[in-house]
TrEMBL record:
One GO process term, biological-process aspect: 'de novo' NAD+ biosynthetic process from L-aspartate
Cofactor note: Binds 1 [4Fe-4S] cluster per subunit.
Pfam families in the cross-refs: NadA
EC number: 2.5.1.72
Protein name, as recorded: Quinolinate synthase
Organism in which the protein naturally occurs: Gryllotalpicola protaetiae
Cofactor(s) required for function per UniProt: [4Fe-4S] cluster
Cellular compartment(s): Cytoplasm
One GO cellular component term: cytosol
Similarity annotation: Belongs to the quinolinate synthase family. Type 3 subfamily.
Length: 437
């Protein structure tokens, strides 16, 4: 069964259908994405088809059980009616959150749409909501659980909706790295009171890594406050260990004037991170070897082609893109930055955007006074976020109506406490921070 014909009016789904039936060429997006996600939820060794298929899924990652047949067989109209009726029955007891990168067939049911941190904070402002259905990926649901009250259940409709970038830094590998850095640099502050290393984790990381930062004098950053957070970290540490996204770390530190020669890349698969003692001694920012499978697809040649075809085009990319792409763009910024830049532009502007395709195509529909297109015309969606399908949303909502909470994401209280410390440091570093990837 495919989901395209009867369930997916959205243009991203049509793009994937075009790739599948051969009408569109030049994409490495897997045609199997046209299948319902349940086709891959049982017994798949990796992330499933799509943008993240080449990345390694860590052992112990959450796995989704079988979706009941009633939902797998339902038409788009049936799912729509079941979701609407469950939401009406639950009223303010449930809030559905839709990430900017979520597919339109799901976002249409969202009570709130935004980035991960905006959505987590919105959930905290809804004390009547007994259940928060988070249509994003695993780390986002964890953050929402950390920031919401103990009586609120955070639900991830498909447990297989992970984030390949977040999974590239697991707690064991980071603790091993930390032990090696402590062995080399010790733990004593210098004469200015700065510790040898301050850990900084991107919001796109597991709760365990946020807790690690909380417990080791570190902090969380988002893609919009990364430079503020790095300044905070440099005030307290001689160097920064930045994980999991090397590109956000490199792009941000470079823009702050940190030389590339002082940003070695720590490869957790190699002894000593694959780095010499001299490289570590000279380091200001030790970058973790992680990346986003979606944003690494954007290239300088795509920007050149956009400029050639659309003179005057404004190119905006997300800072998870590689450094040479950010350097070639007119500007780089978080999803919220991109949304605000487009909203503020005079009518008739032309934008080439380097971020996830669902957001780009939604912006193109929302701002018809502009011409807005994705730098990569056949780019894949975030394949893990794409695992959230209306069928899963209908299932978790109808279970709630029946008084059952399924797919709850619960961060252990000790981990949540440590993660909260790192998140609060971020908020104190810049109290008006509202943006994330
Ligand atoms: S777009 Fe990239 S960083 Fe964002 S959830 Fe998907 S894989 Fe993770």
């Amino acid at each position: 069964m495919t989901l395209i014909d009867d369930r997916a009016p959205a243009s991203v789904a049509r793009t994937i259908a075009g790739i599948s039936n051969g009408e569109l060429s030049g994409s490495t997006c897997a045609p199997e994405l046209t299948e319902g996600p349940w086709a891959f939820d049982l017994g798949m060794p990796g992330y499933g088809p799509g943008a993240s298929q080449g990345d390694l899924l860590p052992a112990g990652s959450a796995a989704q059980g079988e979706l009941p047949e009633r939902y797998r067989r339902a038409s788009g109209e049936e799912l729509s009616s079941w979701i609407a009726s469950a939401k009406a029955s639950l009223g303010s007891r449930v809030a559905v959150m839709g990430h900017f990168y979520q597919r339109d067939e799901v976002v249409q049911y969202a009570d709130f749409v935004g980035d991960s941190f905006q959505l987590a904070r919105a959930a905290r402002e809804l004390p009547d909501a007994e259940a928060i259905v988070f249509c994003g990926v695993h780390f986002m649901a964890e953050t929402a659980d950390i920031l919401t009250g103990p009586s609120q259940a955070v639900i991830l409709p498909n447990l297989a909706a992970g984030c390949s970038m977040a999974d590239m830094a697991d707690i064991d590998s980071v603790e091993e790295c930390w032990a090696e850095l402590e062995a080399r640099f010790g733990t004593s502050p210098d004469e200015s009171g700065r510790v040898p290393v301050t850990p900084v984790t991107y919001m796109n990381s597991s709760a365990a890594l946020k807790a690690f930062c909380g417990e080791h004098g570190g902090i969380v950053c988002t893609s919009s406050n990364a430079s503020t957070v790095l300044e905070w970290a440099f005030e307290r540490g001689q160097r920064v260990l930045f994980f999991p996204d090397q590109h956000l770390g490199r792009n941000t530190a470079k823009a702050m004037g940190v030389p590339l020669s002082t940003m070695p890349l720590w490869n957790p698969a190699k002894a000593g991170g694959g780095l010499s003692g001299e490289a570590l001694d000279a380091s200001r920012v030790i970058l973790w070897n992680g990346f986003c499978s979606v944003h690494k697809r954007f290239t300088v040649s795509q920007i050149s082609a956009a400029r050639a075809a659309h003179p005057g085009v404004r190119v905006i990319v997300h800072p998870e893109c590689p450094m040479e792409v950010v350097d070639a763009a007119d500007s780089a910024g978080s999803t919220d930055y991109i949304v605000k830049a487009i909203a503020a532009a005079p009518a008739g502007s032309v934008f080439a955007i380097g971020t996830e395709i669902n957001l780009v195509q939604r912006l193109a529909a929302d701002y018809p006074q502009h011409e807005i297109f994705c730098l990569d015309s056949v780019v894949c969606p975030c394949s893990t976020m794409y695992r959230i399908h209306p069928a899963y949303l209908a299932w978790v909502l109808e279970e709630l109506v029946a008084g059952r909470v399924v797919n709850q994401i619960s961060v252990p209280s000790r981990v949540a406490a440590g993660a909260r410390v790192a998140l609060e440091r971020m908020l104190a570093a810049r109290p008006d921070t509202t943006m994330a990837a």
